[in-house]
Every structure is written in C-alpha cells, then in structure tokens.
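User: For my dataset I need records formatted as: sequence, then structure tokens, nothing else. Please produce one.
Assistant:
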Amino acid sequence: MNYTLHQLHIFLKISELQSITKASEALHLSQPAVSIQLKNFQDQFPIPLTEVVGRQLYITDFGMEIAGAAEKILNEVYAINYKTLAYKGQLSGRLKISIVSTGKYVMPYFLSAFIKQNDGVDLTMDVTNKSGVVESLDLNEVDFALVSVMPKKLKVNKIPLMKNKLFFVSSGKLGLKKSLSKKKLFEETPLIYREHGSATRNAMETFIAKHNYSARKKMELTSNEAVKQAVISGLGCSIMPLIGIRNELNNKDLQIIPMKGLPISTEWNLIWLKSKKLSPAALAYIEFLNKEKEHIINEKFSWINAF
C-alpha cells in the first residue's frame, strides 16, 4: 500500500463531514481534486470505504475503521512535529476552536497576532451554530468555544472579549420610513430568521415575543451571510449583529431602523470546560488574550462605539 498522509487527511475529513463537497470546502481544495484522491485511496483497499444511497454519501463500517486509524496516524505525525519544535524551544501544538457563525467576524482578530508569533501552533477553527458549538465543547472535541450566550448546563471558564450588539435592519433600497409604526413594520414586512439553534434567532424571537409583535411572513436561512444578502436584496428585514454589517451600512446597502428595546446587547466570551486539561499552546493563548485583548478591541473594533 502506498497511501499518503495527504490522502489520509482528505479521507478523514470526508468521513467527518459525510460529503465530498463539504470536505473540499473545508480543505480549500477543488471538488475534483478531492474525488481523485478518494478514488486513489479507495483503490488500495479491496473493501468499499464509502457508498452512495440516493445522492447521499455514507462511510461504510470498514471505512469508519480506516478513518479511526487515519486519525491516530495523523495525530502521531502532529506529535512528531510538535516534539521537534519543542526541542528547538518553540511553542507548539494545536488549538481547536469552535465558533458561532457570526463569530467569524470577531475571532480571527483575536488569533492573528498569536499565530504569527508562534509558527509551531496549528489552528483548527470550526464555524457552526450555537447548538453545534456547545455540543463540540461538551464532547471535548475542542479547546475553546466562542459564544454570545453562555451554555447553562456546562461548567466553564471564560474570558469576556467584547460587546455584541444586534439591530433591526432593512435594505437601504427598500425605502422603509424610520417613523413607521413598529407594529406595522413587523406585520407588513417579511422577517428573515436564522435557523433553529442560532443565538441570533433566539434573541430575535425573544424580542418579538416580549413586545407582542406578530410576523406576517417568515423566511429561514442557515447562515448570517445568507440572511445579510437576503435583506440587502429586499426580501425582508431581520435583527442582525452589528459586527457583520459594517461595510453594508457604510455603503448604504443596509440601514438600521431605530426601535425601542434595541439594540440587544450581549457579550462575546471565549469559554472552555473547567475540567479541561489545557495544552501548553492553549495556556499560552489564554495568557496572550488576557494581555492583548484590550489593545485588539481598541485597534480593530472601536468603530462599534459609533452605533
């Protein structure tokens, strides 16, 4: 057998995501390139690793066994690399972080300098919704999680990072009058929601229920970017985090509609399980954040104070 570490890495990602398309996106490779590597890997085994039922890809029982072995092999390779760096006196290891989708506008700025300062530290950052983030933390699959709503059932430590403000927004071209009755605004304008399990959706539903508004029509989309583009196009309005719409507000593609009770203000927190035995890289990152977070906020996010 002549399978490569690259093929092991690709097959492991396919087995995790149950999709060649999603694996190619996660690995930043073309779909044909991933498909070719999967075929080359499969050709080295007499038993199928995958099967397609309908249009859905499934990993066979044998394939799951191979995926488990692939993970162990890759972890050993990482360990060799990290030990080499450690002997050279460099901080090494992997940081695994799970973040809610709107956190992608926040977390990279709190990671950039640390990763640049520590070449031996590899970063894995999974972007999903609140439910997925909490689950990955609970299953001890990640070192840290970024959330705007603290999980109630987990015992965690936290580092507060920055405020998260949510406003009612509409398309800049929709021509909604800011003086329009808020009740009419909700009754006459379609509302665009995030999917169930999203912290943004929970905040939006809580606000609507608290003020006894009734939505005329609802649309549900599964990412913040999708909601933003739908609002810009004039499909409807939504309550959205300010952090993700700065450019659209400046370009007047979106407008904030002032409303009593808004903005909803929460706080971004980096959290980790109290029972978690943190790696040297994770401990170093906590130290970095405690030292540098205020500087990062002032340098990268001072614009938020204008809203």
